[in-house]
Amino acid sequence: MIAIIGILVGLLLPAVQAAREAARRMSCSSNMRQITLALHNYESAYKRLPSGWTDHGAFWTAAILPQIEQNNIYQTLIFAESGLGNWDNPLSPNYKACQTTVSSFRCPSLPFSEPSDYNGIQRRVPVSYRANGGSKVTSDDASTRTVVNTQSFEDTNLDGVMHGCSKTKLKDIVDGLSRTIMVGESRTDPDFSKDGQGMDFWAMGGPQVDPCNCKGGTGGTEFSEAAGSLYPQVNLAVTKPASNGYLIEVAFGSWHVGGVMFGKADGSVTFISNNTDVAVTRAVGSRDGGEIVDFED
Known about the structure:
This protein has 297 residues and is α+β, with helices and mostly antiparallel strands. The protein has one domain (2-285). The protein is 26% helix and 15% strand. It has helices at residues 2-46, 60-63, 71-74, 93-98, 236-239, 245-250, 278-285, and strands at residues 116-118, 121-124, 129-134, 137-139, 151-152, 181-185, 189-194, 197-199, 227-229, 259-264, 269-273. A 5-stranded mixed beta sheet has the order 9-3-6-10-11. It has a two-stranded antiparallel ribbon with strand order 1-2. The longest helix has 45 residues, at 2-46. The chain is globular, with a radius of gyration of 19 Å. The N and C termini lie far apart (45 Å). 47% of the residues are buried.
């Protein structure tokens, strides 16, 4: 009898785990849907989407706080270049905002519940979602591009939806809103690094992004804290763990089995398999590449 009970428990446990993961995946999809709708509301109010990050180091996630019912946090933020506007100033409300958990920015499957001391901010809360910065980015800065004739997040002429100093309007997404990625999941793991690159992704803003010069300069690092690239295969850390750390850092990924959740520019949500051809993901990563691709979940 004990043996039979043991066998039944062994059979039941995977089913329970699968059911829990299905529930977490549904919750993640709901988060993504809320974020895409918030971005649409932002675009409606300001006639453009938020920048992936600004020259004050503020991320797109800070910009849409009022649209996800977090206006109380937004009202405390200081968008300035120095003093209390610095994201790593412990006396700044910006610093406190980085320590604040916003459930809409975190996938339930994310296995890191505790904040981390990272990049000059203590007890910083990691998040799961990043903006689509483009389809040609292979690193944070030009000096570390891993593929010839590609771009870095230092460039301001990227073909994504939100990147440094971008002012993309929905009408600029000429490839079609249903065929263009707006935001995606990331396989956040502050404890993991490769080739000196950490898989740390955050909300609100970051001291390493500042100084970004929207008038033509570069400066700053760690832009991948806020945006990802659809140049690499999705979930590269899982499918090809021997890949260069710079590519793994910019790649979108997830803690779900088999693929990654994405929000499209039409407000819908889709799940892209780890096995999806990179030609397809690059096509849906550009807003105006003119690619013709059948993109359905």
